[in-house]
Amino acid sequence: MPTTRVPKLVTRGSSTRIVLCMANLEERPRKNGQTAYILRWADKRTHERKSHRFADEHDARRMLLVLEAHDHDTERALENVRKHYQSVYIVSDMVSDHIEMRTRANGYTVRRYKGILRRHIDPILSSVAATGVDYRDVQVRCSGEKEAQ
After folding, report:
1. How far from the centroid of its chain's Cα atoms is residue 116's Cα?
2. Domain that holds residue 95
3. Is this structure's pTM higher than 0.90?
4. I want to staple 91 with a disulfide (CB 3.0 to 4.6 A). Which of 10, 63, 118, 125 is the partner?
């Protein structure tokens, strides 16, 4: 598992010392046969040892990458993750994700679906948040757009 060690100069009062900030990821087999992934790191500001357990290796590696990108500063990393997940998920993105992930269609059909999205849905609902829209809203917006044309 990856381990990163970055020397840091820490000044407290009149003394300066070198501290190794490191993060490591450990695999831990469970009794039920599954594997848990433990991420351990030292917070940059407090120099406190922290850890978090993940059930999925991908999630653990992603968190390790985020911590390393923020120089092991837990507060900055958490703030960045919150900003990322609070971004607006619009109807156009939702339909596009549905086409890519949920349909078992071949290439021609997928191209047609994307064309329908681009010609019919994007002009009407491209900037509307997906969480604020239900079926009736789509019907009203689409029928209102057709009447205007």
Report:
1. 28
2. 88-130
3. no
4. 125
